[in-house]
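Think of the structure tokens as a kind of shorthand, similar to the way a musician reads notation: each symbol stands for something richer, in this case the local conformation of the backbone. In the example below we present two proteins back to back. Begin with the first one, reading the sequence and then the tokens, and try to describe in your own words what changes along the chain.
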Amino acid sequence: MTRIGVLGPGGVGGVMAARLARAGGDVVVVAGERTAAAIAAGGLHYTGPEGTWDGFVEARSLLVAPVDILIVATKAMDLAAALQRVPASLLDGSVVVPLLNGVDHLPYLRAQLPGARVVASSVSVEATRHRPGVVEQVSGFCDVGVSVVNAEGHAWAQLAEEAGCTVTTAPDDATVLWRKLSFLAPLALLTAAAAAPIGPALRSRPDLVRPIVAEAAAAAEAFGVTIDPDGIEERLRSLPETMQSSMLKDLLGGRAVELDAIAGSVIRALGHEGAPATVAAATEILARQAAT
């Protein structure tokens, strides 16, 4: 049986841990002391479009034995600290699957975990952690993207399918990361800048929608990934009006937001002058943070 570790069982990590355990996976979650203790004592409680699932998985604040696959599902800004919980020596030969926003985490993980095989992957799912060990998949979709440049990518794709996710493969790392970010950046920045779900956000800032979408697509193009801006905008407008990005939820909850991983990736790809709409949205979000 494949031994699966999940570093960061929050919204996304908790949903993936529950889905994999429900499918029969041997799962260990690695989290902060309070979260690890809550899951060890009370188990995982998952609610999703298929119903509910309750079960027990191993929970620890430190990884103490090797795993075959480690899913990394922390917030981008928490990655460096979280890696202290999973010693690199235990991951030699392991497959590491980061499900983080942005693009910078991939080379960082490969540098920090030189003995591991890091697979480029992404997940699109609206997930919420209500409290430690209690997670909900709010959306009806759980879409996983995987780079299949090697056998490790194919192995993770199969596991994700067994967990009930819809899997899309790509022939290279950049395509996986920018397919997601070119959509996520407009969704996150528009909703957080407006401090509103996607429906009201689109209506309140019609001047910002097309430029911010175009900049995300141009950033992807800078990495050799072709994205259709019309397709992104159409997808944004097809979302449920009440859908909130994780950035909006974090902003409204007074938590740190992944502004550098999301907006920063676009700005770094195009330069400050090449991404005025992204810069403007990021500036609005920073001002909202400063006011709270």
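Once you have a description of the first chain, move to the second and do the same.
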Amino acid sequence: MVGALVFVGSKMGLPYAPPLVLAALRLDIAGLLLVPVVAFQYEYWLPQTRRDFIGVALTGVFTLGMTNTLLLTGQQYVSSAVGAIAYSLMPMLMTAFAVLLLPAASLDRSDAVGIGLGFIGALIVANPTPATLLTARVVGVGIMLASVVVFALGSVLTQRLDPSMPRITLTAWGALLAGLFNHAVTLRFGASLAAVDWTIQTVYALFVLGVLATAILYTVHFELVDRIGPSRTSLTFYVQPIVAALLGWLLFRRRVTVGVFVGFLVIVSGFALIEYRLLFRLWRNFVGVGTRE
């Protein structure tokens, strides 16, 4: 639910602020909220080792900075549901990058087919044809997919680096650095805070993006990773498009086309192939609980 608010909040704020400025403000808010929280909760809350500092730089400039620049730029051209569907490729891309970059990771036949299905599903969602190749919608999906690639690659690189800091602490400092990075990008491309139309809708959008969809989302995400593991946590990526589609219809009257729905189902099928062992265990546990009751 919370994750879907990233895409809904973006659509709320983009009419009133340039995407690069909106991305920078989102990360400013998240960093300013998260750093005091981790300082209160964790003894190890300041970067101390060389790997910690490299991890913060990687997270700030690459994983969060570039990702949010691309995400907000691409979200101008697509609905919140399509944006969420693009991000449902995340678990498959992380699997692919892990195989390439992590020594212990390996790829079997079902993984390879699942990753392939994910990209086929993304193509169905984008629906590129010679006539529509440069339309705003196709370009928007392409930028969103680039955002997913950058985030997945940055996450796996950080995993390989293995800094000593807790993940949420690393993210908190990374968010602050990412905000500064995005402000620098806005200046490079001629955008500024003066371009923001400060309406009540802008404030709502920044609250949704900075507080709910970033500070709270990251806290919940890493808590879930610690409690149930990354594989089960990745299942939340497949709830986001459903919630985003419902909220997009309620708030913006945007409908999901048949092609987008079919593409999403293909992506989900790809994930099911990659994580079929996990899904089988979850199903067996669920049936077992039902039988005992």
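Compare your description with these statements about the second chain. The CA atoms of residues 139 and 183 lie 24 Å apart.
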